[in-house]
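Practice problem 4.
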């Protein structure tokens, strides 16, 4: 997908250069290149971001469980009730 994005940047860059004014060229580049490619890459990377978020949550959950087990193991045993 990167080669397609590079080609699209090149094409839109050439279109932007041929515009009548600098501001029209800038708006052409922004509206036809930066925004669509940014949106496309954001959508394409959503699965990776979700997987990273889930992995971070899983690691934090495992750390909490390990801390709770360590705390339970180091706690003194309760004395038997006296009658």
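Answer key:
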């Amino acid at each position: 997908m990167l080669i397609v994005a590079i080609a699209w940047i090149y094409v839109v860059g050439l279109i932007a250069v041929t515009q009548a004014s600098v501001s029209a060229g800038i708006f052409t580049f922004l509206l036809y290149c930066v925004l669509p490619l940014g949106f496309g890459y954001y959508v394409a990377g959503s699965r990776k971001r979700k997987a990273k978020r889930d992995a971070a949550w899983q690691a934090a959950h495992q750390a909490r469980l390990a801390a709770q087990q360590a705390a339970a193991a180091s706690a003194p045993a309760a004395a038997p009730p006296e009658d």
